[in-house]
Each structure stands twice: as structure tokens, then as C-alpha cells.
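ingest -> validate -> predict -> emit
validate: passed (alphabet ok, no gaps, 110 aa)
predict: started
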Amino acid sequence: MERLPFDDVDNVEDDADPAKGLYRPGDPDTSREAAESVDVSRLEGMVLEAIQGFGPEGCISDQVREALPNLSYSSVTARYASLIDKGKIRRGPQGRVGDSGRKQLIMWAS
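emit:
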């Protein structure tokens, strides 16, 4: 699989509070500081571009993570829900078998 270049990724959407949802109100200050250091828009853009690269065939999470080998598991998988909420990607009821031998839902760019 070809690795994707992400130098020119545009922000998916600028939120008023980019760290919103990345920490809970009762969490220690270090959690908030860590959440504020994450460039959520850039990560969402990278994940979206990876999913778009699979075209109408769609992809499963294992394929997205393989396309983004320099990002941690949680940096990639945590973006799916927000991209779905924003209408940027969709997941269908269909699945494909992943590396674990279990089915994963197929995702497509909207």
C-alpha cells in the first residue's frame, strides 16, 4: 500500500474549543494540557484523506492505520466518531475481516 503525503492537509473544521471532548471536567490539569496540545483538525484531515484514498471500495480501520504508520492507534481511531458526526465519513453495516480475524465496519468518505 502506498503511504500518503499529508503536508498540505487542510483543516476539516475549526472548532471553538479544539480540545472539547478530549478530557473530562474532573480530569487533572495534565489531561487538559495534553488534550490542548493535540492538533485535532490536522489529525482529522489526515484520517479523512486516508479514507478518501480508498475510493468507493471503502476501507476498514486496519487499512487506515496502515496508511498512517507514524500515528498511534488512538490518534487514528479517535477521529472516526467526530468525522461521522461532521458528515465527512460514513460507516455501513457491511464488514471485512481485519488483522485480528474479526470483522470491522467499512468506512467511506461522504
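The radius of gyration is 15 Å.
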